[in-house]
Amino acid sequence: MLARVTTFALEGLQPIPVTVEVDVRPGLPAFTIVGLGDAAVRESRERVRAALLNSGFEFPLRRIVANLAPASLRKAGPGFDAALAAGVLAASEQVPLLSVENTGIYGELSLGGEIKSCRGTLSAAEGAREMGLSRFLVADERASEAALVRGLNVGSVRDLRELAEVLAGEREHRIPDRHVHAVSQTDTQTELDLSDVRGQDEVVRALLIAAAGGHNLLMEGPPGVGKTMLARRLPSLLPPLSEEEALQVTRIQSVAGLHVDPSLVFRRPFRAPHHSVSMVGLIGGGGIPLPGEVTMAHRGVLFLDELSEFPRNVLEALRQPLEDGAVTIVRVGGRAEFPARFCLVAATNPCPCGHAGHGTRCTCDPLTLERHARRLSGPIIDRFDILATARRPEADHFRAEGEAPSSLTSEQGRDLVAKARECQLVRWGCEPIELNSEASERQLRQHGSVSSRAQEQLEAAYSRNLISPRGRLRVLRVARTIADLAGGAPVQAEHVIHALGLRVRTASV
Amino acid sequence: MPDALAGPCVRCLRNSTALALVGHHLEKGGLRARPVGILSFSADQLIEEIGGRRKGELHLGLEKALLASRVDSDSDSRFASACRHQGAFEWPACLLEDPEPPWVLTVSGDSKLIAGTPPGRAVALVGARKANAYGRSTARMLAHSAAGAGCVVVSGLAFGIDTEAHKGSLSFGSGRTVAVVGGGVDHVYPRSNARLFEEISAAGCIVSEMPCGTGVWRWSFPARNRLIAALSQMTVVVQAARLSGSLHTAEAALLRGRTVAAVPGPINDPVSAGSNALIADGALAVISTESLAEALGFDQPLQSVTPPAELVGAWRLVTNGGLTEALSSGGPRSAEVMSDLTRLELLGMIQRLPGGGWVPIGHGGGSVGSTP
């Protein structure tokens, strides 16, 4: 007897339908799986056998051949277990053969017969909807994730016994809840708030600008003044994700195995890989490509602490995703395109001892200083639009009772950012971009509305050799965002001055 | 009369080549600090003194080296050499009475800056390699204003103060500077100053008493220091720790009867201890660009720096301190200060340091006071 069950493999974030064909016929007892599976797929045999027996089913003592079609696609992971078990049940007529028609099954089996969730449930569910399957059965724990896909009949099953009963029509599958809601109350409350920050006005302003215009931000300052703490508060300034963006972020987290809460993720991701991260870890990769940190930070913030400690080749590899907003990874196991549109924030000490620029506290000798500057001035430094200096807060800042009067709360900041983004949405409506940080020279010239005084100021800086042509564009973009934060009026000279003050100075002194 | 095509006389050339030849022997001979007197030994004296059992070998090597150098100097017109008797430029007048003069000077760049009686006054700005931000910015500021007054700034192309002194002088449009180096004028040391080396040989000159192709030994630096002092009317020690090599320069200047000045620094900062001690011992204290001008004998103060009226507040913060407090105090005030600093930077008056500090860089040439 031949049974066909549909399940899904992942190619990057994309679901690829896989038909599990199970053929059971007389012969010496054997169980073979063909179709380019990896070790986890081979081990699947033992899990399926034990799970069937432990659930009180019969494991047919005949010759069983299972094929994962298309046979040319490399398949990895335990996600085929449940479909294989259902195939065996149908082919040995322990459930009606027709019951597995038009049904998608996705999950891993335990030896006791429980169905476990596995990575990429959301993507698989999207694949099921695309194929027009009449139902999609997944493990209990991840059922509400699959239910995020509209127009798909999702059923949740706890174990193999229940799956068989549902297939046999003896009971209805349970329908999971669908948790689609905007940022919940608890979500905003648990977020880190900007009002925790003492002093650091320069960096707070820079954070606002970075959030409003999507600019990449470099923070410089001695150790212990709160660079990391400030960076962690950037996501709280960004507007919540739209439903479409949230679905994208949820999909990525689901494939990467990060997703804990089975509801839609509205919180902007914040990723802070340690500087020992490998290139594959940052960009993505592996035999069968998996997303890296840049993709996990999609629509959120990628924070690189101690920028100068990152290996040069790793930073070098960041340039392409920063430019394109996506990475394409090609490996033996297939090719995958991952989105990677993130706001890059980095922190660095101004010198190895951390105290350069502040009188006599710096103990570094000139050679070390130069080496440090060279490490930083390499491949990545000119991708930053903003350089902000974190300084030691004054003692008064800590003495003040409660919140410092001048400090901004994240909520106020978020409002400012939202207004500035509104201005940008209107401005770039006719262009294929959303944020000032993506604007080209031409687009800024046509729609940027820069006052003549501001233009003069910019050209003065350029002719004084203070900025490069690329730096000029970056200053202009930042100035545009500063003007947007101030209400969206044309860029004035003072906005250009402010942007010039925040520019990254690359030439070593 | 100097002959544009001629080199130094054979005797002097022989003596200077011999010095380069036995350079590493001097190092081995325990002469780490200062080979007193030896620099003015003639070739035969030198080989007699140093040679030991290998005198014959050294004599042979010397003849070979002389032959090679003659071929080189014929084919290479980038460099000009002279001795007190003859050469491609007139022997500097200030070296005629020198207690320990060099045999030969080789110049890459504009030899007029040292030849005969140079048109301008020469001031040496020297100091520690491991200088801090205060020392570096002071060196740059003093060099800039000295160049503005038409002085030639002499220094040694080392890290720290020397580098800033050269850069400060070059940052004044017509500023010219002399770098006295320990090795040959074609030997870039330290390597990382290669670009500055190029700039100086284009806009000023590089001077050495060693033949081309000579490297540096430990004794080359004190030897070079005496030349810096000898070629200048005044030596200013901008910042030096105790035992700093730049104190040798001050000593050499005193020996030659030149003025020695020093820039005072914080008394609790070891990197300024040497320069402070010089002042305590009676060196002239340079406390402003005006006092430097006075010491150099200019009636008028060197061009001083005046920012536009609305930026005076921020300028004072940079020059008189209090900047860190103003920037970290928060509120709208710090934003204002930041934008004023940027304006000053646009005027070319100050410069941002790594870590967010600011220092003055002399003044911005012609554009001071004009609004861009």
Short descriptors:
heterodimer; A: 509 residues; alpha/beta; Ribosomal Protein S5, domain 2; Rossmann fold; five-stranded parallel beta sheet; four-stranded mixed beta sheet; 18 strands; 38% helix; elongated; B: 372 residues; nine-stranded mixed beta sheet; two-stranded antiparallel ribbon; 14 helices; 11 strands; 13% strand
Explain this structure.
The complex is a heterodimer of chains A (509) and B (372). Chain A is of the alpha/beta class. Chain A folds into 2 domains: 2-168, Ribosomal Protein S5, domain 2, CATH 3.30.230.10; 185-410, Rossmann fold. Chain A has 19 helices and 18 strands. A 5-stranded parallel β-sheet of chain A has the order 11-14-17-10-18. In chain A, α1 crosses α2 (81-91), α7 (201-213) packs across α18 and α17 (452-463) runs parallel beside α19 (493-501). The longest helix of chain A has 18 residues, at 410-427. Chain A is elongated, with a radius of gyration of 28 Å. Mean pLDDT of chain A is 87; it is low at 182-186. Chain B has 372 residues and is an alpha/beta fold. Among the domains of chain B are: 119-179 and 220-296, 3-Layer(aba) Sandwich (Rossmann fold), CATH 3.40.50.450; 309-367. Chain B is built from 14 helices and 11 strands. In chain B, the strands form 2 sheets. A 9-stranded mixed β-sheet of chain B has the order 1-2-6-5-4-3-7-8-9, with helices on both faces. In chain B, α1 (10-21) crosses α4. The model of chain B is unreliable at 363-372 (pLDDT under 50). The interface between A and B is large, with 46 and 36 residues.
Q: Tell me the span between the first and last alpha carbons of chain B.
A: 51 Å
Instruction: Assess the beta-strand content of chain B as a share of residues.
Output: 5-15%
CATH hierarchy: architecture of the largest domain in chain A: 3-Layer(aba) Sandwich
User: Could you say what the CATH architecture of the domain at 119-179 and 220-296 in chain B is?
Assistant: 3-Layer(aba) Sandwich
Please write the CATH class name of the domain at 119-179 and 220-296 in chain B. Alpha Beta
SS content category of chain A: alpha/beta
The average pLDDT of chain A is: 87
Question: Would you identify the regions of chain A where 5 or more consecutive residues have pLDDT less than 50?
Answer: 182-186
Q: Indicate the radius of gyration of chain A in whole angstroms.
A: 28 Å
Q: Please tell me what the overall shape of chain A is.
A: elongated
Largest sheet of chain A: 5 strands, parallel
Main interface: chain pair and counts = A-B, 46 and 36 residues
Number of helices of chain B: 14
Distance between the termini of chain A: 79 Å
Helix content of chain B: 40-55%
CATH fold-level name of the largest domain in chain A: Rossmann fold
Low-pLDDT sequence parts of chain B: 363-372
**CATH-defined topology of the domain at 119-179 and 220-296 in chain B:** Rossmann fold
